[in-house]
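Fold this: Pesticidal protein Cry26Aa
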Amino acid sequence: MIGILFGVLVLAASVLVAGVRMFRGPNDANRAIAADLLFSSVVGLIALFGVLAMSPPVFDLVLIATLVGFLATLSLARALTKGRR
């Protein structure tokens, strides 16, 4: 239980740091990385709250959110590089 609460604390700090970096980033690439970190941290928080609540449907939500986040990261990387491979 203490480990889960410590994880929530660390991920909450990560959300705050990523939010600040997303608004103050010097360029688009830094903002994209911060947005990806923010999304991953929020998904982690949802997963930890699902463990605390002992709710199996939350894990399906986390799986779908992770897939959507991965595809969004790929799309954003493609847009930032203007389609170059």
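The chain has a mean pLDDT of 92. Residues 27 and 33 are 10 Å apart (CA to CA).
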